Amino acid sequence: MPNKKRKGTTYPMIQAIIFDLDNTLYWDEKSNDEALAATCLIASNNVTTISAPKLKDDVIHQAELQFKASPFFEFAHSLEITALETLWARFDVEDHSQFEMIRNQAPEFRFNVWNAALQSSGHNDSHLAAFLAERYLEERRERAYIYEDMMETLTSLHSQYRLLLLTNGTPDLQQEKVDSVPGLASFFEHIVISGDFGIGKPSESIFQHAIDLLALRRNEVVMVGDNLYTDILGASRSGISNIWINRSSGSRPDHIFPTHEVESLSELYSLIQSL
């Protein structure tokens, strides 16, 4: 890769791009939303007095509430595993006591979330709660959405730059998401998952680990992500330039300053070429 020259001085060009996964490449929000909606619709079809939209809201609320109260919250939170991921992840990580604890307690967590959500609507039905907890696992795994400009963007960038995937979460679930999209893994030299590394974004240590794997300098790398806290603030604190994918034209807090901002993946190639 050639270097840019300005007034007799050579400056390193961008050599590699670090990508976030969830809601940057993989449309996790849509997958979760549709799977929850489908599961709650099944509940309302079985019990006509159940409101599917209300049950969906109650499930999200109860998942967050019980996740924060769970004995595995501190460990899961350190890896940026979310409450909704805990509703369907297998946590199938060998020889790891903390993941084994979550794996053993996850079925009870899922049942309790759905049971409490039903009870909030006046339905005390443990059999239905158990059924919905299991059905959600199926509904969620049937939905693996990506952004329509993802493949074309990665194909263009892969021809010019080295790519690394840096994602928070439990290793088996994040790998399952990658594997659910044919050809996605082939774009990346490395796939770094917080559950494997031991701590998640925005920790500087996981960004440094990614840099070390690439054997590059920080000014030769750019981070691309949708999350202002984990992706953008984490990269900034690590001395890595970054690009915020702001699809919803959302505002940002005063203390977080993305290096660049775009509204879609399709804008990345021309922007990175100009850096």
Task: Tell me what you see in this structure.
The protein has 275 residues and is of the alpha/beta class. It folds into two domains: 4-27 and 147-273, HAD superfamily/HAD-like (Rossmann fold), CATH 3.40.50.1000; 28-141, no CATH class. Helix content is 49%, strand content 12%. It has a six-stranded parallel β-sheet with strand order 5-4-3-6-7-8, sandwiched between helices. It has a two-stranded antiparallel ribbon with strand order 1-2. β6 (221-225), α11 (228-237) and β7 (241-245) form a beta-alpha-beta unit. The model is unreliable at 1-10 (pLDDT under 50).
Task: Sum this structure up briefly.
By secondary structure, the chain is of the alpha/beta class. Helix content is 49%, strand content 12%.
* CA distance, first residue to last residue: 13 Å
How much of the residues is beta strand, in percent?
5-15%
Assigned CATH superfamily of the largest domain: HAD superfamily/HAD-like
Shape: elongated
Helical residues, percent: 40-55%
Average pLDDT = 94
Q: pLDDT under 50 segments (min length 5)?
A: 1-10
Q: How many strands? A: 8
The CATH architecture classification of the largest domain is: 3-Layer(aba) Sandwich
> What is the number of domains?
2
Order of helices and strands: EEEHHHHHHHEHEHHEHEEH
Biggest beta sheet summary: 6 strands, parallel
Q: Numbering strands along the chain, what is their spatial order in the largest sheet?
A: 5-4-3-6-7-8
User: What structural category characterises the helix and strand content?
Assistant: alpha/beta
Number of helices: 12
